[in-house]
Amino acid sequence: MIESNQLSINRQCDLLGVSRSTYYYKPIHESEYNLILMQEIDRLYLDNPAFGSRLMTASLLQKGFQVNRKRISRLMKLMGIEAIYP
Question: By C-alpha distance, which of 1, 21, 20 is closest to 11?
């Protein structure tokens, strides 16, 4: 039974304006392979800051990584990296 000085989870979420599913959400961590890719993206970006997701993907494919452009684009966005254009 709930004591009078405690609010239910439902009431707390209502007061904060968030859904109950947000309260119970457990974030999923990046996979080990994605972390390796992110390290390699970082190295490539330091050498070539003008590389966008397309050139970054091509470079990673040449190095033997199994990637597609959408994945690289998502990881670059997650890392806060975007191409520097002249």
Answer: 20
Structure tokens belonging to residue 82: 């975007």
Four-point Cα dihedral 64, 66, 70, 75, nearest 10: -70
Asked if 8 contacts 28 with a C-beta cutoff of 8 angstroms, the reply is no
pLDDT digits (tens, 9 = 90+) for 43-53: 999 999 999 99
The residue among 34, 29, 47 whose CA lies nearest residue 76 is: 34
Q: Collapsing DSSP states into helix, strand and coil, what is residue 70?
A: helix
CA dist 45 and 38 (Å) reads: 10
pTM for the predicted model, two decimal places: 0.72
